[in-house]
């Protein structure tokens, strides 16, 4: 038992999720959830499920959801994979497409789940440093590699890589699978999904957790040419034939189909983000340009960890990472305008107290 523990389980370094407090009355700007509820059509679709239907297993292919997603992106259903949140889609991607004898590449400042999947599946990796503006430079992705993954916009920086730069990484790496994790793309970026027909090595991953306000339903998906999707299906079917339950499938289809609601919420979050950036700048923060539903900011005279703790004492949660290069930054989710005002007022009060 002790050998098992130390050699297998003890060697894993799991991802630490952002805090999900059980008490209410907090301004929760720490895990990039959408401040608005999902489309009312989602709740109607979930309520429309019956006891007779829930008695039965769901469709293992989630065909209705794949068809709805395929329609939005102008692809065939054979180019769509769905899973239990994009975290699960990512996990299957590391196992099916990125497990390689040569190291895979991802940025040194990025989604902290990537090294966790590498640890779990025994994937070697090499971090590619962001440039001095904390941006991805496509020319740094030319080295021999076993695959490439990066979020676009990157997390936690919020910085966007223009589609031409994504294309450059693909062109530099025709023999590697290139995975673009687009969890936040709907808040200001151009999706690489339109490149799928041209690039047999491209996999695009998206989620319903952010722009569709469905973090609680756990639905994510991948878009790629059928041979890549087939790889993901094989791993999924070796693991869990039914990753999505009937409630998740019904709710997700309704969310994908309600384009008008999606547009409205997306625009509201983008407008609030611009107000938040202006408010932080007026308090003296340096704020990176953001194409996401969060901003990444630091104050030239204050430590990030201290600001996060002081905000917490005022019942405002933001995310702080104790990591090299970014330890003075706060990652702040865009809330409603009212939530953003509460945050800005709390920060103004904290900054008025001498450090
Ligand atoms: N990718 C990135 C870059 C993220 O920040 C997140 C959210 N933490 C995810 C994927 C996973 O999101 P979900 O599992 O909710 O789809």
From TrEMBL:
Q: Which residues carry this modification: N6-(pyridoxal phosphate)lysine?
A: 210
- MF-aspect GO terms: histidinol-phosphate transaminase activity; pyridoxal phosphate binding
Which EC numbers characterise this protein's activity in its record?
Answer: 2.6.1.9
Q: Which residues form the signal peptide?
A: none
Q: Which cofactor does it need?
A: pyridoxal 5'-phosphate
Biological processes, Gene Ontology terms: L-histidine biosynthetic process
Q: Domain Aminotransferase class I/classII large: where?
A: 25-347
Q: Which UniProt keywords apply?
A: Amino-acid biosynthesis, Aminotransferase, Histidine biosynthesis, Pyridoxal phosphate, Transferase
Q: In which pathway does it act?
A: Amino-acid biosynthesis; L-histidine biosynthesis; L-histidine from 5-phospho-alpha-D-ribose 1-diphosphate: step 7/9
Is Signal among the key words of this record? no
- Keyword Transferase on this protein? yes
Query: Reaction catalysed?
Result: L-histidinol phosphate + 2-oxoglutarate = 3-(imidazol-4-yl)-2-oxopropyl phosphate + L-glutamate
Q: How does it assemble?
A: Homodimer.
Family statement: Belongs to the class-II pyridoxal-phosphate-dependent aminotransferase family. Histidinol-phosphate aminotransferase subfamily.
What is the protein's given name?
A: Histidinol-phosphate aminotransferase
Species annotation: Acidihalobacter yilgarnensis
Identify the coding gene. Answer: hisC
